[in-house]
Specification:
Strand content: 15-25%
Distance between the termini: 16 Å
Structural class: alpha/beta
Order of helices and strands: EHEEHEHEEEEEEEEHH
Largest sheet: 8 strands, mixed
Helix content: 10-25%
């Protein structure tokens, strides 16, 4: 019998009430923890935490390779200082011993402490880091203080229609969908940018979205297949695909969120698509899908 998969959900900030602390990802935590195998055993053991105080390495991330975790889901919600070199080294050693990674961020430069996480860091393009020689104009023009990348997939609390890139990756399968693929994820007014780095032959875009502002197609997720001893990984365009506020805006947000939400997703059939996506991801990162 397979043992439960040990998942660490972690942010890159200290516990801070008026921010995207780990308590704002409780619906994801509770959903994964609720899943069981056909014989009734827990499918996942889930730990959720914020980082230790800044100024010293995080006690868990810096020694992640020596832990019992099978996966790290890292929500980079910092402004550039959320990881130090010792933390990044621990995460990279964790992947080198076969651990699975899901690394996500948000618009502009939010979460840019992940840039130096090897090829997975290179998959994340920010306004001032990993960007090309010229910075495109903002995609979302409704929040002018937020510069590119900020792809506008819809209001917080809405469902966005996404496209699985052929050949369909295991994470994107949904046999309950009319297409056999994941069709919906939570929307967000300004998603970040992810690419398949040219240096990573084993990486590819597996899902794309569509901007409601410009009509532009943008990348939702990049998957890195297991390679040698390196574990699998996913670079995701925004942590809002996993946040309580985007699954159900009644859960609230930090007070710096200014956009008006809608309340479509909680009672929508699209929520099943979201659940399939995170379940698939958790199983795939553990080598069980």
């Amino acid at each position: 019998m397979n043992q439960p998969i040990n998942i660490l959900l972690q942010t890159t900030i200290e516990p801070t009430e008026n921010d995207w602390h780990i308590g704002r990802f409780s619906m994801l935590r509770d959903y994964l923890a609720s899943l069981s195998t056909p014989d009734g055993a827990p499918m996942f053991n889930v730990t959720a935490r914020d980082r230790d105080p800044l100024g010293a390495p995080d006690s868990v991330l810096s020694a992640l390779d020596r832990s019992d975790y099978d996966e790290l889901w890292l929500f980079a919600v910092d402004e550039g200082n959320g990881l130090d070199d010792v933390d990044r080294a621990g995460i990279l050693r964790f992947r080198a011993r076969g651990g699975g990674l899901m690394i996500t961020r948000d618009h502009m430069d939010l979460g840019c402490s992940i840039c130096d996480l090897g090829d997975i860091g290179a998959a994340h393009v920010f306004h001032s880091h990993n960007a090309g020689p010229s910075i495109p104009p903002p995609d979302d023009t409704d929040t002018p203080q937020i510069q590119w990348p900020n792809f506008h997939s819809g209001a917080n609390g809405a469902a966005q229609r996404i496209t699985a890139v052929p050949p369909v990756h295991p994470v994107m399968h949904d046999m309950e969908s009319d297409t056999g693929t994941i069709r919906f994820l939570p929307a967000h007014p300004h998603e970040g940018a992810v690419i398949a780095p040219a240096s990573a032959a084993h990486a590819r875009v597996i899902a794309t979205g569509h901007s409601l502002s410009s009509g532009q197609q943008f990348n939702i997720a990049v998957a890195f297949e297991r390679s040698g001893t390196d574990g699998p990984a996913i670079a995701e365009s925004t942590f809002h695909h996993f946040a309580d506020y985007n699954w159900d805006p009644h859960r609230g947000s930090p007070d710096f969120v200014s956009e008006t939400p809608v309340y479509d997703l909680p009672n929508s059939p699209a929520m099943a698509s979201v659940h399939h996506y995170v379940r698939n991801m958790a199983l795939w990162l553990a080598g069980r899908l």
